[in-house]
Amino acid sequence: MVTDPIADYLTRIRNAIMAKHRIVDIPASNTKKSITKILYEKGYILNYKFEEDSKQGYIKIALKYHPVTKLSAINKLERISKPGLRKYTNADNLPRVLNGLGIAILSTSYGVMTDKEAKKQKIGGEVLCYIS
After folding, report:
1. DSSP result, 47-106
2. What does each of the 132 residues of the chain score in pLDDT, given as a tens digit?
3. CB within 10 Å: which end of the chain, N or C, has fewer?
4. Cβ–Cβ under 8 Å, residues 74 and 13
5. Are 74 and 10 within 8 A, CB to CB?
């Protein structure tokens, strides 16, 4: 049993990048699907596919690497809000990752979104993770 599914999601991606895997399979949930869509829209992953099976299903993620240097598009994945210590922020104090070059993913009352989208809509929420 996994106590922190988002940390497990980030760790699976981090481990696949370190092992230079092209594809990683992750058990699915609605929050993980939303985070995956954000990673794809922002260009951190190459592609994704939601696979359904008899249980909860899983997410197939194709990781993105530079063709020449073989470096990953994702440099750092950091879990911020943990089950033991939740981190919330309001619209005025939204975090900036690498002076705006990275993204912070927030869980808001309007769904999972990036820090820039939350700033536009002037809403805060729980800071799930930083990606750069």
Report:
1. EEEEEP-SSS-EEEEEE-B-TTT--BS---EEE-SBTTB--EE-GGG---SGGGTSEEEE
2. 779 999 999 999 999 999 999 999 999 999 999 999 999 999 999 999 999 987 889 999 999 999 999 999 999 999 999 999 999 999 999 999 999 899 999 999 999 999 999 999 999 999 999 999
3. N
4. yes
5. no
